[in-house]
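Posting for a labmate who doesn't have an account.
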Amino acid sequence: MLLLTFSLIISTLGKVHCGILYPRASESRELVSLDGLWNFALANFSNSVQNWQEVNFKGQKMPVPSSYNDVGTDKTVRDHVGLAWYQRKFFVPKSWKDQKVWIRFSSVCRGAEVSINDRMVANHDFGHLPFQAEISSVVKFGAQNTVEVGVDNILVATTIPQGTLEAQPSGGIKQNYTFDFFNYAGIDRPVVLYTTPTTYIDDITVISDIDGTNGFINYSVVVEGSDKVTTKVSLFDQTGEEVASDTVLTGTLFVQNATFWWPYLMDSNPGYLYSLQVQLLDSSDNLVDTYTLPVGIRVISWDSKSVTINKKPIYLRGFGRQEDSDFRGNGLDLPLIIRDYDLIKWVGANAFLTSHYPYAEEIMDLADELGIMVINESPAVNTEKFSDQLLENHKKSLTELIQRDKNRPSVIIWSAANEPRTQYNASEAYFKEVVAHIKSLDTTRPVTVVNNQLPGSEYSGQFIDIVACNIYYGWFSTAGDIDIITAKVKEVVTKWNKVHNIPVIVTEYGADTQEGLHLLPAYSWSEEYQNAVLSQHFQAFDQMREEGFLIGEMVWNFADIKTTQGITRVGGNKKGIFTRNRQPKASAHLLRKRYWALAQSLDNADVPDDLNDYKMKLLTISLTILSFFLDNVHSSGILYPRASETRDLISLDGLWNFALTNTTDPMRGHLDNWFRVNFNTIDLDVQKMPVPSSYNDVGTDASLRDHVGPVWYQRSFFVPKGWSGQKVWIRFSSVCRAAEVWINDEWVVSHDIGHLPFQAEISKIVNFGAENTITVTVDNTLTATTIPQGSISELISGRVKQSYTFDFFNYAGIDRPVVLYTTPATYIDDITVTTDIDGANGFVNYSVVVEGSDKVTTKVSLLDKTGKEVVSDTVLNGILFVQNATFWWPYLMDSNPGYLYSLQVQLLDASSNLVDKYTLPVGIRVISWNSTSVTINKKPIYLRGFGRHEDSDFRGKGLDLPLIIRDYNLIRWIGANAYRTSHYPYAEEIMDLAEEFGIMIIDESPAVNTEGYSNDLLENHKKSLTELIQRDKNRPSVIIWSASNEPRTQYNSSEAYYKDVISHIKNLDPTRPVTVVNAQQPDVDHSGQFLDIASFNLYSGWYISPGDVDIIIPHVLEVARRWNKLHNVPVIITEYGADTQEGLHILPSFIWSEEYQEEILSKHFQAFDQLRDEGFFVGEMIWNFADFKTDQTYTRVGGNKKGIFTRNREPKASAHLLRKRYWALAQNLDNAKVPDDLNYYIFGTGKDEL
């Protein structure tokens, strides 16, 4: 065997530009994420060159990473052409001062200009590829900095990809393009700050080879900075054992009896990765820099008929795909990524094409780990009008792509372009140069162009190593004529091979399919037709496989995607075998049989049991454990972690290792001390799990979805050296439900209530400037004394099942952010604020708790939105008087809703040096209530809102910033001013936006359907309320505490129980009224006597007299009046509505139809208006904002369908009706200005109707 020498490596990879290594924390490198909510504004197309200082960022937040187009309700954002501006503040730790500081964008679509502290630091003109800049001389250390990013999505004849601009008769500009996916734009992948030493590892290049059972790693390391360093290069296996090493920057590592990198199902151990650790050492052998690169040992070869990996022929079973999902568009979406890979493995695929641009590095990492082969495609799609400038941009994009992905074992083929117009003569010279450019950069992989032209009439095939062809017989060509597909496909593919004498892959074929459309005999757009099209292709593929030149088949598409609007696009491109929300069409099951049959035949893979008889086997659980915990929770302050001049913060969000307990031995993890071992080194079925996310829905396995008992999470992390001497904390915003945490084999903390944060100091446990390991167990078991409650039963099959009475799915996992943060030894532990008003003036009553030394002084300052100090004091407990204050008002009650001051607390030492600093948003407002009304700032309020859930596809309850922004945009679009956190506390990030937007909240404890009242249940209930009020006590948006939802208050034992619960709340906070959301009739309930507000749920026309809409008005009037009469308190209806199957229309209205939901709403509106006139009715909240998942039952068609929006946040007819209602109320009660698009409606005669 010929070993690759250094000179061959250099010639193989061409000229190396600066490195773009993926940022990883290490002993010598630190990393801070800038992901989160950024300020955002669109630029006017006619003034796209404006500076960011001229931009008004008021009020609009945008999640990063995410495309910006779909998070709102405004088509001007969706269809924007030109510049958009992003801005955010960030802190750079003082300890970074003597290091190089870099900012790295994994992708901005498309063009980007980056400024920091008013200085331009970077620009980049390609989407989907990373770029970075050193910013050491620009940032302020230990202080606040500002980053601004201009994002330009304009496509022209010379951009990659191409497009054109068209002036519209209306005066606007439209972006046109020929590619068939939506031109999403924005900061769509992570943004990080990271450090390197002044002498650092800039780049690593790796090429592997094999000889028999042995492997070779040919490597080259580029070092920037001083040349007075030595090098150690080590190769580690997955157990951490060093298997080879060298001390030169360029060399070859010999690996005896190597474990090769194999594709999924070609080997029992696919995707095996070694770790190449590069260390730079000074003259005293002290570590200067270190970087670790995952490496797979494999070799790709090809000839005129085949492609081999490790000298075995491969046959690609896969998909074309897109980075595409609801709300976030192209934005990085870890739960979706995990779901996608589970589906890829479920279906038996081993490959995909990154159509039609480079995918996120996180997606590529998992392809490496799981053994999924990748055809890696440039962002050039439908190239035409070939010019020198286009050619240079095309080549530059390929240079950046190959520089980024050159070391990936999963990348087996480079694709120069998708569907270029190679029928034109000009394409010949163009693609000759493009393909030559790729080969000058990398000769170790074959090159293709994905073509939709006919062979013999195009000009690129002569230069490529593999033909990749897109064929749509039975769809774009000869639609409906399925009988010709097999022959035509064979004819075209055979001709490609004959003309060029190289292997062929079919990279696209398929048919658009409307999920749920069934027609027999098969008819276009039906699921039957998609199956027929696939089946005909299968026959052609098998015939050509036997002829020896077809090496792969890739259906288009993995999942439905969004496109630009067109009459042939029913909500997008519907060729997916999965829907856009990743549920299977019939074709997914057909393709699964095909791919597993191929895997069995070609790779000798074991077929899944459920394919043998095509039904799910029963999974059994013989034991359920109930964990009991020690208590080490830091129980005083639980301030939201914020970076500042004195506090640093590192996110631990991302992909964690994850394992279920064995269903027959759920205690095994504890008994075997899994918290003391690396999950990768023991015989454990480990998968990747996104954090934050629920774990239930990211996979395809019912045993994961319905798991009962403990699961285990683990990951490694680095703690910066500079943190030594400070207090280091770990904080979980929520784990559902019970959690135990270990760090470096040491037990740290436990917590037994979901939806609420907990933290612990870990300063004495962590290793500074070194790697640490965190392990977390999460137990979702519910019992008679947990909050909420549940029970365990054993089914006749032997499986243990979790049962509960609440009507939402019992999602579990680490479902909100996990962070490490620091405080000084003396630090601000807690802040409590209450506010009041007197005329135009405001009062901020505050109390600060300090832990540590008492030898500090305090400065407390109140800053307005401009940053101007309006008042200050120097005591820990005091009152700030604010003359002519700007009050916090609810949305639409004032032209400036949600106004927030900043309460800045500083601790100073004897020399007036800053010791600690924390800034708390504060809204000045006062809540009052009596027997008939609730007021804010002495004005009566009327709640227009919803019950809601934290619920979405794949991530369940997991924090989802793009979804949150979408939800708030819909809430404001509809004219609502309030919601209830049904039926548990919501994420702090959700609550933060309620503050900013002026949305009022009924804040609810996680106690739902309480019954079986016991002392243990009471203590847990009160503990949950203590933690909830401690967390949310300072929020102006929280106007009511809800002690429980639908408790069984008809029982006598509930009286003493709720007397104690309500008293507990009022002892903690007397400034807000308290309610219990009741489903009992007022005359049988035992809680109402203790409440300040009566809240009731009533389902007239649904659970009560379904179909009888005529009873709704009298029934609602009767129940509401009775609550008021019995208890002499204001009344809110917190739930009413009807399940509705979107798209079901029946006239006259009939149950489950959209017409019926509208009629239900209309009848309730009439009742509400009568109650408002009677003076005690203070709010209406429909159930539900959006459809959500529940436990399985015959009354739930895929979940609870009472939403006025679908689960993916699209409106049903009722949403438009409710919008008219809420805006009419806002206009009538708050003098709000009605949106222009509602003026299209005819105003009714009723005083609250539009």
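Reply:
Got it, the structure tokens are right above this. The two ends are 81 Å apart (CA to CA).
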